[in-house]
Fold this sequence. Notes:
Layout: H1 3-12, H2 17-30, H3 35-44, E1 47-48, H4 49-55, H5 61-73, E2 77-82, E3 88-93, H6 95-98, H7 101-114, H8 126-130
Amino acid sequence: MTIAECNDIAAAEPCQRGVVEQFHRALGVLAGKWKGEILWQLVQRKHRFGELRQSIPGVTQHMLTTQLRDLEANGLVKRTVYPEVPPRVEYEITPSARALKPVFDELFRWSQEHGFPTAAQPKGSSADKKA
C-alpha cells in the first residue's frame, strides 16, 4: 500500500484509519534526533556503547542511553551484556530493524544525489546579498 492509497482510505473510510494510525505509530518509534543516527550505525555492525558515542558527534551519554533504551523497548535494538570484568555490552539491530536497511540505503542515495552544503546559509542572508 502506498501513502496516497492510505490517504485515500483515511479520507473515504473511517474504519480503515487504523492503517494510517499504525503508520503514525511507526514514525513515532523512529522519531527523535538521534534514533536515525543510532540505527544507521547499528545497521552496519554491532557496537559497544563507547563506539556508538564516538561515532555520533554531539550526542550526550544521557541522550544515547535514553534513545537506546527506547529503541530496545520498541524491539529495534538488542542489548547483550557479557559476564566479564569489566562488563562488556554490545548493541545490535533486530531483524525488525534490519528491514529498514533499504530505507537507509535510499536515504543515503538521496543525500548523495541532492547533497546539502556543510555551511548552508538561509535564503536572504548576508552571504546571498554579497554575491
